Amino acid sequence: MYIQFIYVSLSPNHLNTIIMSEKAETPFEVAQEQVRQKQLQTPTVSTGGKKIDYFGYQLAVHKFNLSIMSRGMTCRGITFTQIKKYYGLKGRSAKDCLPQFLEIMEQYQKNLQLNQVLNHN
Q: C-alpha distances in angstroms, 63 versus 14, 15, 18, 103?
C-alpha cells in the first residue's frame, strides 16, 4: 500500500486537485500517476454512448475475473499471476487475494468520487 497526499489549490477561475502518492509501487499505481502527469493516454471506454473511467472499467473487469478464479475456474486472456502482479496483491490463491483487491477497488472509488466533487465546485 502507499500513502496518499491530497493537494488542493484554488485559482480565481477553478479548483485544481492533484492526488499524489508517496511511493508508486505497483504497475496499477504507476499507470494512474502517468495519466495524471499526462505521460500516458488511456483508451476511451464508453457504454451506452457515455464515456466511463478507464481504470474503473479495468477494476470492474479484473474483479469479475478474480471472482471467477477464486471459485477455481480460469479466464481466457488473463492469468491470476498477471492480476496479482499488476495490483501488488499478496497471497497464494485468488480467494486469498480477493479481499485485498476489493479494498483497492473501494479506495479507488472513494478517490474518484472525491475528485469529481472537488472538480465540480
A: 35, 33, 26, 11
Structurally, the chain folds into a number of domains equal to 1
CA dist 62 and 60 (Å) reads 5
Residue 46's domain comprises 4-120
Say how far apart CA 26 and CA 41 lie, in whole Å.
18
Which grid cell sits at 13? Answer: 477561475
Enter the pTM of the model. Answer: 0.75
Question: CB neighbours of 10 closer than 8 A, spacing ≥ 6?
Answer: 16
Q: What is the DSSP letter of 42?
A: P
Per residue in 61-98, pLDDT (tens digit) is 999 999 999 999 999 999 999 999 999 999 999 999 99
